[in-house]
Structures are given as C-alpha cells and as structure tokens.
Design brief:
The complex is a heterodimer of chains A (444) and B (436).
Chain A: E1 23-27, E2 33-38, E3 44-51, H1 65-72, E4 76-77, H2 84-91, E5 95-100, E6 105-112, H3 116-128, E7 130-131, H4 134-153, H5 156-168, H6 182-185, H7 190-200, E8 206-212, H8 216-226, E9 251-257, E10 264-271, H9 280-293, H10 300-308, E11 312-319, E12 327-335, H11 341-358, H12 362-379, H13 383-395, H14 400-412, H15 415-425, E13 431-438
Parallel strand pairs in A: 2-8, 9-13
Antiparallel strand pairs in A: 1-2, 3-6, 3-8, 4-7, 5-6, 10-12, 10-13, 11-12
Helix pairs in contact in A: 1-7, 9-14, 9-15, 10-11, 11-15
Chain B: H1 2-14, E1 24-27, E2 33-38, E3 44-52, H2 65-72, E4 76-77, E5 80-81, H3 82-91, E6 95-100, E7 104-112, H4 116-128, H5 134-151, H6 155-168, H7 181-186, H8 189-199, E8 205-211, H9 215-226, E9 247-252, E10 257-265, H10 274-285, H11 292-299, E11 307-313, E12 318-327, H12 331-348, H13 352-365, H14 373-385, H15 392-401, H16 405-415, E13 422-427
Parallel strand pairs in B: 2-8, 9-13
Antiparallel strand pairs in B: 1-2, 3-7, 3-8, 4-5, 6-7, 10-12, 10-13, 11-12
Helix pairs in contact in B: 2-8, 4-9, 10-13, 10-16, 11-12, 12-16
The chains are: A alpha+beta (444), B alpha+beta (436).
C-alpha cells in the first residue's frame, strides 16, 4: 500500500544526524538554494524540492490549503498533461511523492541517476506553470476529505492530537491541523490554490536537495539549466506569524471515544526550537527526550513506570526542534489496565520531578553519547534520510553548518545542561495534558 | 497486520538488483550458508536472519506462543536481565529487532565494526539463552494483551482478521499470530520455552549480510551466532486451500469510514506465469498512481485516499489481495468500481501501452532498491526464503521483459474472477448489505 503522496504529518524523529564531508551547497542567482549530498554506492538519485510554505502560512479560514495545493501539484502544466507527472516518473522506473508540514511543503522523486535531467525539467516546470481545472480541483477535494476521514477522523488518537495542538497554540497558526478543519476544507477553491501557489512557489522561496550518485558540478549545471531561468516571486518576505502570548494557564483536554480500547495520556510542553548558530538548548532537550523515554527498557519513564511499579504498559518522550517558531516536548504514558489516568499522570510527574532532582544516570548518559556517535555512521546508509534532514532544517531557517554541527551540539551536552533544560521546559503553565478515554456510554 | 505484511513480501520479490553488485555465498565451517555483499565504505554491518516457520508453528491451543516468545527474546538472556541486556546493547549502539510473522521469525541486526564481536556474542546470548523471567513474561504479556484489546477496536485489524478467518478457517493463517486474549492469558513459561525450541532451529535459518565484513569474518560470525541452537525445529503446518467465494461480509463498526479488504486465490511463487501475474497486478492495483484502481477509484472519482492490491504467495497458500478505505456513503460505489475493473481486466487483459509502462517501471525501479546495506541484506534474505538462485538479481529483469501481452491476457483469464472476489467491509456502509 503506497499511497503516501501527501500524508500530512511532521517527522517526529528527534535526532537528525548528518555527515559533513560529502555535502555541498550553493545558490542560483534567482535565489534558489541548492544542497548536494553525495553517496556513490548505487546509481540512484533523489531530488527533493522544499518550499518555505506550510499550514502555518495559510490565510485565516482556509485551513488545509497548503496540503490541498500539494495534491494539486500533481495535476498538469502546459507541457505535462493532467496526471502525467507521476506516470512519467514511473515510466522512468522512479517513485515520487510529497508531504506537507506546518513550515514546509516538499516534493521528491527517486530515480536512476541518468534521469535526473528529466526530473529537474519537470519539477522546474511545475514550480511556475501549474494549470488547474475546476473538475480536477473538485475531484481532488474529495480525495483530501477522504484522507481526513482515514487518517484523522478514523483515529481517536489523531483527533486527540489535533485538539491538543489547537489548545496549545492560543494565537500561533501551529494550532491549525495540516490536513485542515473539515468545514474549511469543503470550501477550498481553485482560486485559493492559485493564490497560494503564485505567492509562494518560486525559486527564491525554495530549497533543492539532490542526494545520491551525483557530483556537485554536474548538479549545478543541471540546476542552472532548468531552475536558473525561473523568475523569483516578489511577494516573499520573512515569515512573521502571530506569536504566542505568555502562557498563564495549563490546559487539559479530555477526548472520549467509543473506539478507544487502551486509554492513555499525553503531556505536551511548549518548547524552544533549534536556533541557527546556537542549538545548545535544542540539543539538551533532544538528549532529555532520549533519557526520559528513548528506550522502552532503560529510559527513566520505562524503568520507573513499566519495570519498578508496573503502572504502565507503554511510555515514551519525544521532541523535535526543527521548526520556524515553536517546538513541543511530549511525554506519553499508557497505564496498566487497573491503573487510572490520574494515577498514571501522578506517577509520570514524579518521574519528571525525580529526574530534575537527581539528574541522569551517568551510565545511561554515556550510552546516549555512544548512540549519537553511532547514529552519524548509520545515517550514512540512508541518503534519503539525510536529504530530508537537510531539507527540513534549511526550510525552517537553519543552515548547512547548523546541520553539520548538530551531532557536535549533541555531544557537547552535559548532565547539568539536561537538568537545566528540563527545569525550563517542564512548566505546567505552558503545557497541554490530553487524556484519551473510552466512551462507555457510546460504546455498543 | 497480516495484510500489510503480505504486501511487504511482494515488495521483497519485486526487489531488484544491480548487475554489478557482487553477491557472494559464504558457508561457515559449521555449515551455515549466508549471502553477502561486502562494502567497506561505512564501518558497520547490516545482518538479516529469517527462521522459516513463524507463528504458524504455534501448537494447538497455544496461539500466540511464538509471538510472545519472540517479543521476549530481548528481555533478558544469560546472566543479563532485561535492563542489563538493553544496557549492554545500547552501550555498543547496536540494534536488534525480532519480529514474528506468519511464515517466519525475522531478526534484523546492525552493529558498528568496532563492536562486531561483542555485539555478535550478545545476539548469540539472546538467540540461545533467553531467560523468559517470570516478571518479563508478565510485563510483555500485558503489552501483547493491550495490543489485542486495541485490535478489537481497530477497523484495519478487524478487516484482516475477518478476512483471514473466512478464507482459512482453522489453519494458522485463519487467525492472528498474536493469539487471542484467552490463549495469550493462558500461555505458560513452558509454552514459551517450547515455542523457542520449535521456532529457532538450525534447519530453517536464512542469513544475509551487507556492509563492512569479509567472507571469512562472516563465516566465523555465523558459527558463533548460531552455536547451541537445536538441529531441527517443529514441523511446519500443511497446505491450506482457498475456499472463500464471491460475496460481501459487513462487520458493523461505528466509524465514519469503512475499511475494505478484498481478494481471492492467487498463484505460487514458482508458477511459470508468476511474472505475467506480477505485471498484471502492477497494472491493475499496484502502488503506482497510474494503476487502474488508483486511477478509477481515487483520481477520477475521489472515493478514497488510496487503493492497492498485491499478490501474496505465502508458504502454505496463495492469495491476491487488495485494500482501501472509503467514506460510509461512498463505499458501495467504490466496491462497484473495483468489481467493474476486475471484470474488465479479466475479460480484456491490459493494453500494450500499459504492459510497456509497467515493464519500464519494474525494470527501471529494480536497481534503485539496492541503495543501502540495510536494504540489500533485507532483499537477499528474502530471495533465499523464496528459493531463488543467487544470480536472480541479474536475471530478474529479463524475466519481466519476456512477458507478452498474450501471457498477461491468459493469466488474467485464469486468475482474475469477480465470481470469486470476496469483500470484507468494516464500518457502517450505506446501501451495502452482507451477501450472500
């Protein structure tokens, strides 16, 4: 089942390690930023184009338009007939897909190296020459509504996440679901798509990542040939979104659904992002998430809640600081059958408090440093993953150097840094706690 | 789960290869054979192991034993308890993953070159001396039970469980390898020990490695890794024939969207028409956006987010399966479109252009799959499980190219049948009663 053109989720993977020596970057005169990642082990190349526009850049009342436009980008241009984009990639033996986040929309193809020329020609063509018919838009709107039914409305856990995000962000558009609110999705029009497209789809608002069996000089020549002639957009300005007021009150969200079998709780805290030139706080939070919930066996939460007290059957912690404005730090606990959500939440809070009081176990801390080092080596086996790391980072305002030095930032984190970061981030006033519960009455 | 797994298997065969890639066969002094692609560029090794059998080896009344055993392998071994084992593994930044499938148990490992020996010893300990401590058994049993309770409210799992039950009845394929609340609750430590002895044996091992390891080093590793496992394991189950016939089975479930699983019998992996059927599936319901079902159900009518079909020739039976989700008020129409396309394709086959496009895609995408050590090891172990020759990677595209329009038409007439196609619908579909 590969229908992933368009799954609207953000990559949750926290550690985004990378290798330095094979990465080159440059810009074209029209503003297109280009990153080349070399991996010559197999004659394969991935082209990714990342636009600095996402769900948080949508006009008010038009939620879902960034993601809808992502779907519509597979319609036609003057040169490529409707539906022929993917068909052409497939005829070359390649695969293509796309995804949307709050901060970016990205498109990619994976093909044999000698097809890169054609892929660039097609991707450059649809950057400025998209053609949409009313019929295509109407049919594709049904597809995204069906996608919402499948991915969000059919999943109580996804609905809880959506509600929690809306509660977390009082003013910032990160509270909008990427897929969109259904009532607004139903009204999204061809003109809405064109408006967003005309403004944001331009070389000076994009990053091209080419990863695989290529050399930078060749990529530069191809990029000049296909993208170099495109006109920049005059409407691009720094992303100034409505920011959050100081958090004064913790928020609690309870979602009851007959389809819930195993209740669980999630606590999300508003957290800082990776900042260009200073990633130390984000690095400390990344290590904190690993220590608290990275291992299903030895992490603080697992040890305390699943092993020592057996109050939980599952626990985890997660953080990804790759965003333009805000990140969230999350903790999740699924209680054992005879344990209430309140009891589980209290036990979770005790783990967080104990961690701040006692600091990390030195051996666990040392293991994580080894894992960070190893992940840089393992990451080289997945050039597509490296392409995503660079694309996401550059699209939110980080630099190639930030990505390159991220593993160093992680290595530099001390136990004291982690505790200090925990102290700062675990502020209940800046948190949303969600309980997913069975709806016994509604159950059949 | 079972359903998606079938698709994963398909992908493994579809998996392609690069002519210049050097696949070596390595046989250890102790007689274990593995396939290897040595590549010293990155200092780590990806190791893939499969033990044929899997959850289908569960003894009568012990459904879920192999699955629970597999989940417990990493929960303490030798003189290490669960905490000690995880700490030792993480201190080397090695990763081991153990999974139970219908026809096999898979072990995926990767480790840095600098930790190759101690990582091998630790994995050996897990395979040969798992402790199955009482507290670990209870903890993991609770996790499995939580999963089973969640499955009972998960429309995707309900669909595949219902479909498998209808198709295979009392054969292991007819039920989830995870077991039931009742069987898993009743499993004893002895049951788990029996499952371990029956499932992890030397007579059913398939191994592939890719990365920074030489043939000699791999040979030594193999003997070290499997030393002490029993020579023979439990008997494999017998064959089961597909008996389900045309119809619609509706499972009432309160959700805005119905999950639909459909299918009928398939063909064996070694059937002379396999490649023709494979191309036919690609054109009818393959993962590409240009496949007929994707075009008709999604692109033209907007009835679903995605639809796909796949051939699933498993060890003891063969299927041709598909799946999609559709809003309750649209699912009847979507099923009608699937039936029409199925009928049309059965009668008329595919066009010359479709055949050509599918061939170009399949042959062109083949080498792209071999782009990492992890992928290569995974593909090579799958090839061995399928009893394919070691030069398969080189000859595979020629087999695809050799398929003619007549071959596809013959196979379509032979296999595709709306008279056999059964739909399981989990949801509250409008205007769609169970039938017959």
């Amino acid at each position: 089942m590969k229908t992933l053109r368009c799954l609207p989720f953000l990559f949750l993977v926290a550690a985004a390690p990378a290798v330095a020596e094979t990465v080159t970057d440059f810009s074209l005169s029209n503003g297109l930023q280009v990153v080349v990642i070399e991996d010559n082990r197999a004659p394969v190349v991935t082209q990714m184009i990342w636009y600095r526009v996402g769900a948080a850049d949508e006009p008010i009342g038009h939620s879902g338009i960034a993601h809808f436009l992502e779907h519509l980008m597979f319609q036609g241009t003057d040169k490529v007939a409707a539906g022929q984009f993917s068909a052409t990639v497939e005829r070359q033996g390649g695969d293509d897909n796309a995804f949307t986040s709050w901060d970016y929309t990205a498109y990619f193809q994976r093909v044999a190296t000698d097809r890169l020329d054609l892929m660039m020609e097609m991707e450059a063509d649809r950057m400025r020459n998209l053609r949409l018919t009313e019929d295509d838009v109407a049919t594709e709107r049904e597809v995204i509504l069906s996608e919402r039914s499948q991915v969000t409305d059919s999943s109580p856990g996804a609905l809880l996440n959506e509600q929690m995000r809306a509660a977390m962000f009082l003013n910032h558009p990160y509270g909008i679901p990427i897929i969109g609110w259904r009532h607004e999705m139903e009204a999204l029009s061809r003109q809405d798509a064109y408006d967003m497209y005309a403004k944001f789809y331009a070389p000076n608002n994009a990053t091209l990542v080419v990863a695989g069996d290529v050399d930078p000089a060749n990529v530069r020549a191809l990029a000049e040939k296909h993208y170099g002639t495109l006109t920049p957009s005059e409407d691009i300005s720094p992303r100034m979104r409505a920011m959050e007021p100081p958090p004064l009150a913790e928020r609690r969200v309870v979602l009851k659904d007959a389809r819930v079998s195993e209740p669980y709780l999630i606590r999300n805290y508003l957290a800082p992002i990776r900042t260009s030139g200073d990633q130390s706080e984000a690095a400390a939070l990344t290590v904190l998430a690993e220590l608290l919930g990275g291992s299903g066996t030895t992490s603080e939460l697992a040890r305390a809640l699943q092993f020592e007290t057996q109050k939980a059957v599952y626990s985890s912690a997660f953080y990804d600081g790759t965003a333009v404005d805000y990140a969230t730090f999350g903790v999740v606990v699924m209680p054992a059958p005879d344990v209430s959500l309140q009891e589980a939440e209290d036990a979770m809070d005790k783990v967080l408090a104990d961690f701040i009081a006692n600091g990390p176990d030195p051996e666990a801390f040392a293991r994580i440093k080894t894992q960070v080092r190893a992940s840089q080596i393992y990451a080289r086996d997945d050039v597509g993953g490296l392409a995503r790391d660079y694309g996401a980072a550059l699209t939110v305002g980080l630099t190639v150097d930030d990505v390159r030095t991220w593993p160093d930032a992680l290595q530099a984190v001390t136990a004291e840094d982690v505790v200090a970061a925990a102290r700062r981030v675990f502020d209940r006033k800046a948190s949303v706690t969600g309980w997913l519960m069975r709806d016994e009455e509604a159950a059949q | 789960m079972t359903f998606l797994r079938s698709f994963a298997l398909i992908l493994i065969w579809a998996l392609p290869a690069q002519a210049e890639m050097n696949i070596q066969s390595v046989t250890s002094k102790g007689g274990i054979t593995a396939w290897l692609v040595q590549d010293t560029e990155i200092p780590f090794t990806a190791l893939e192991i499969q033990f044929r059998g899997g959850t289908s080896l569960d003894a009568p009344g012990k459904r879920g034993a192999v699955n629970l055993m597999t989940a417990l392998i990493e929960e303490g071994a030798g003189d290490l308890d669960a905490q000690g084992f995880a700490a030792a593994r993480d201190a080397m930044a090695a990763s081991f993953s153990f999974r139970a499938y219908d026809d096999s148990i898979s072990v995926s490992a990767k480790f840095l070159t600098e930790f190759r020996d101690p990582a091998t010893d630790l994995l050996h300990l897990a395979l040969t001396e798992p402790r199955f401590d009482a507290d670990a058994v209870e903890r993991v049993r609770e996790q499995v039970l939580a999963g089973l309770r969640a499955d009972a409210k998960d429309p995707d799992t309900l669909a595949s469980d219902t479909f498998n039950k209808l198709a295979f009845g009392d054969h292991p394929y007819g039920s989830s390898g995870d077991g039931t609340i009742e069987t898993v609750t009743a499993l004893s430590r002895d049951d788990i020990l029996d499952a371990h002895k029956g499932a992890l044996a030397r007579d059913r091992i398939y191994v592939a490695a890719a990365g920074d390891i030489s043939p000699d080093e791999l040979g030594a590793l193999l003997d070290r890794l499997f030393d002490g496992l029993p020579a023979t394991g439990a008997a494999l189950p017998g064959r089961v024939e597909w008996t389900l016939s045309k119809g619609v089975t509706v499972v009432d479930f309160p959700t805005p969207q119905s999950v639909v699983m459909f299918g009928h019998g398939g063909l064996k992996r070694d059937d002379p028409d396999f490649f023709a059927a494979f191309i036919l599936n690609e054109v009818l319901g393959g993962g590409r956006f240009s496949a007929r079902l994707m075009t008709e159900v999604r692109e033209k009518r907007g009835l679903t987010y995605g639809i796909g079909t796949g051939l699933a020739p498993r060890d003891h039976s063969e299927m041709w399966l598909g799946q999609f989700s559709s809003d309750n008020d649209k699912v009847a129409e979507a099923i009608k479109v699937v039936q029409d396309q199925w009928q049309l394709t059965a009668t008329e086959g595919i066009s010359a252009q479709e055949l050509e496009d599918a061939k170009t895609y399949m042959t062109g995408s083949y080498p792209l799959r071999f782009d990492s050590n992890a992928a290569i090891a995974n593909i090579l172990v799958g090839m061995q499980m399928e009893d394919l020759p070691i030069d398969y990677a080189v000859t595979r595209n020629a087999k695809v190219e050799a398929v003619t329009l007549e071959d596809v038409k013959r196979v379509a007439a032979r296999l595709l049948s709306t008279d056999a196609l059964h739909f399981v619908v989990v949801g509250q579909p409008e205007g769609l009663p169970s039938a017959p």
